[in-house]
Amino acid sequence: PLRQFLSEIRQTVIEAVSHQNFPIGVLADLLGSKWSPGEGFPLFDVVVSLKNIHHHSLQQLAPSIMFTFEQDGWEIKGTLSYNTGRYRATTVEGLVRQYLLLLEGALADLDKAVSTVDLLSDEERRQILVTFNNTAADFPWTNGVHELVDRQAESVPNTDAVFYKEQHLSYVAL
C-alpha cells in the first residue's frame, strides 16, 4: 500500500540526510568519474530538492530536471527547472500533469497499491488506446502475399524488403 511505501521513503530520506554533506567530488572520485561543478553529474540526472532540508549546492550537479519543494505554512509549493536543450516544454508539462495525477490518486486513498494509481488522464488514455491505435486501413486482400511482394519487386526491385541484424534482402531477391 501507498502508506507503507511513503513510510519507507520517509525512512530513506532520514537516512540520506545524515549523509547530505558528503563531498560530491569525493563521490565522483570513488566512482571513477571525471566531474567538475556545473558540468552535470552522471549519477544524478533528476534531482528532488526539499528547501528546508537540502542546501542549494545541488544546483552544482547541473541535473537535467530538478524538482524543488518548499513548505509554506500548510502548503507545499513546488518549482521545476529543466535543461531546455534536452527537453521540450510540452514534455515537461506532461511530466508535471502526470505527477499531479499521481498526487491526487495517492491522496485519495493511501491504502491502495502504488501500481494502481493512474498516471494518465482520461484524455491521454483515450488518445493512446483509441486515437493512436486507430490503424485500420484498406488492404487488397484479394491477392496473396506472394503477389503483393511480386508487385513491389516490379515497382521498387532494389529496395530492402527484409532486415535481420546486418542482413538485408531486396524485393527482387525474395
Structure description:
The structure is a single chain. By secondary structure, this protein is α+β, with helices and mostly antiparallel strands. About 35% of the residues lie in helices and about 15% in strands. It is built from five helices and five strands; from the N terminus they run ααβββαααββ. The chain has helices at about 1-15, 25-30, 90-110, 120-130, 145-155; strands at about 45-50, 65-70, 75-80, 160-165, 165-170. The protein has a three-stranded mixed beta sheet, with no helix packed on it. The protein has a two-stranded antiparallel sheet with strand order 4-5. Strand 4 and strand 5 (about 165-170) form a beta hairpin. The longest helix has 20 residues, at about 90-110. It is elongated, with a radius of gyration of 26 Å. The chain starts with a helix and ends with a strand. The relative contact order is 0.08.
Record the SSE blueprint.
Layout: H1 2-17, H2 24-30, E1 46-50, E2 65-72, E3 75-82, H3 89-108, H4 122-131, H5 145-155, E4 160-164, E5 167-170
Parallel strand pairs: 1-2
Antiparallel strand pairs: 2-3, 4-5
What key phrases describe this protein's structure?
single chain; 174 residues; alpha+beta; 3-stranded mixed beta sheet; two-stranded antiparallel ribbon; 5 helices; 37% helix; elongated
Write a compact overview of the structure shown.
With 174 residues, this protein is of the alpha+beta class.
